[in-house]
Write a structure and sequence with these properties.
Blueprint lengths: L2 H11 L8 E4 L4 H12 L4 E7 L6 H15 L3 E5 L2 H7 L4 H20 L4 E2 L4 H13 L4 H4 L5 E2 L10 E2 L7 H10 L16 H14 L5 H30 E4 L3 E5 H5 L3 H15 L8 H12 L6 E3 L4 E6 L3 E6 L17 E2 L4 E4 L5 E4 L25 E4 L6 E2 L9 E2 H8 L3 H4 L4 E4 L2 E4 L12
Parallel strand pairs: 1-2, 1-4, 2-3, 4-6
Antiparallel strand pairs: 5-6, 7-8, 8-11, 9-10, 10-11, 12-15, 13-14, 15-18, 16-17, 18-19
Helix pairs in contact: 2-3, 2-8, 4-5, 6-9, 6-10, 12-13
């Protein structure tokens, strides 16, 4: 690796403008010190950022060393110390994962402040091989076998600042040689030898064993990830096209898809859509296991009695109104997806006017001469002469029956009606019902009672 080749990679493969500033994540190890020195040699305006995870007794001294290296190169350094072990415990994460989340949050926050065009980190070809093996053993799909991408945009931290890895094609051995030639003094992290960590076991135990089968196994895996990554780009474009076809609504708490259209897709595309939905709701997930996605595929093909299936990371998939498929957080009431009020609530409605039942939903009552807010399942006409009392909004009661429009006087259990209409169980307890004299005369989103039809 020399300055000329590195600059080519920066410009042509990482999309970096040599005249604009970048933020480099620097741990102090050989790879990040090599990256910093190459940026300095190429004259790239650089801000260095170092996060001390406080995981080792030597971490403060290592941060000081990074400070001295940056000072020698005349590169400004942003430093921060945070207890990664405490954070990981509070958020129920493995320490490695917790440290990673904290590091990237820190890097992108500082990149925004510095006006950096990109965040650059020092992942190299050996990291790529280890990552591919980790994904392979976890049953990952093609996206996992593609490994780490040289440029990631959009990414979990935004859609404007890319995450770049300009050393991704360079082997660790070359990086260490570069450090020796230029007399760089990186920090030697002793934890890299600790085989309690999963990645270290792959590095120090699995890869040496695989080399006994094929001495060029690392090169083969690296080339495979490159080829798979190119094909993954094509599949990603196909997935995005289908996603736009089947997407009805998307928020940071739930995603609604056209169920019928999803059911017509091939299993491969269905898997990719489920994976895309999971990642859209939980950006921090790196590894989505095969079983998680396959549960979603099986549910779409053959819904179970509960009309819901657990995916992963607190996410579930369920059918809604028969024609919709929803991916959402299991602990979310989804008040913005459908109308909900607290059980036991009673809201008396005026003869005319508007009444809010929560922060989003409003009940509007008016004469037929008045223009209705919208002609849909959340608007209805009833014969006022058939009402026996004032209108009140409340929730389901035990033993409730309903006379749906078109049933000509016949009633049915409210629960059976909801099952026929495909309302998920999680929405029923808090669903608002409009009554008059105790009779359900309208179920918003569905039908009026036959007894009050015009």
């Amino acid at each position: 690796m020399d300055r000329k080749n590195f600059l080519k990679i920066l410009i042509h493969q990482s999309g970096i403008d040599p005249a604009q500033p970048v933020l480099a994540g620097i741990s102090g190890g050989p790879d990040s010190i090599c990256l910093l020195h190459l940026l300095h040699q190429c004259g790239i305006p650089t801000v260095a950022a170092h996060l001390d995870h406080a995981l080792r007794s030597t971490s403060a001294a290592e941060a000081d060393h990074v400070g001295r290296v940056c000072a020698e190169m005349g590169i400004p350094l942003i430093r921060k110390r945070i207890d990664a072990a405490d954070y990981s415990e509070r958020h129920h994460l493995a320490i490695e994962e917790g440290a990673r989340v904290l590091r990237y949050d820190f890097l992108f926050e500082e990149a925004k402040k510095a006006g950096a065009q990109a965040v650059l980190v020092a992942h190299h070809a050996d990291d790529q091989v280890e990552t591919v093996l980790m994904h392979l053993m976890r049953g990952s799909g093609l996206s996992g076998l593609a490994g780490i991408r040289m440029v990631l945009l959009p990414n979990p931290w935004g859609e404007r600042i890319p995450l770049g890895r300009p050393l991704l094609l360079i082997w660790r051995e070359e990086i260490e040689k570069y450090c020796r030639i230029h007399q760089l003094q990186p920090v030697q992290d002793g934890s890299n030898l600790d085989t309690q960590y999963y990645r270290n076991r792959i590095r120090h135990e699995l890869i040496p064993e695989l080399k006994t089968y094929n001495p060029l196994i690392k090169e083969r895996l690296q080339k495979m990830s490159e080829v798979v990554g190119q094909e993954e780009e094509l599949l990603r474009a196909l997935t995005d096209r289908e996603w736009n076809n089947v997407l009805l609504e998307s928020t940071d708490r739930y995603i609604v898809l056209r169920r019928n259209e999803v059911q017509t897709l091939t299993p491969g595309l269905t898997r990719r859509l489920i994976r895309k939905g999971i990642l859209a709701l939980n950006h921090s997930l790196r590894d989505i296991e095969f079983d998680c996605v396959e549960r979603g595929v099986d549910f779409i093909r053959n819904s179970n009695r509960s009309n819901q299936e657990v995916l992963c990371a607190g996410l579930v998939i369920f059918n809604c109104y028969r024609e919709r498929l929803v991916i959402a957080f299991d602990d979310d009431s989804l008040d913005n997806l459908w109308p909900q009020i607290s059980p036991g609530t009673e809201i008396w409605l005026p003869e005319m006017g508007e009444t809010a039942i929560n922060q989003k939903w409003v009940v509007h009552v008016g004469p037929t001469a008045e223009r209705l807010p919208g002609k849909d399942a959340y608007s209805c006409l009833v014969d006022i002469s058939q009402l026996t009392d004032r209108l009140v909004v409340n929730t389901a009661r035990e033993g409730d029956r309903f006379m749906p429009y078109g049933m000509k006087g016949k009633t049915m259990k409210l629960g059976d009606f909801w099952t026929n209409e495909g309302l998920p169980n999680r929405a029923r307890k808090r669903w608002p019902l409009v009554r008059s004299g105790g009779e359900i005369i309208w179920i918003p989103g569905f039908r009026i009672a036959d007894s009050v039809k015009v």
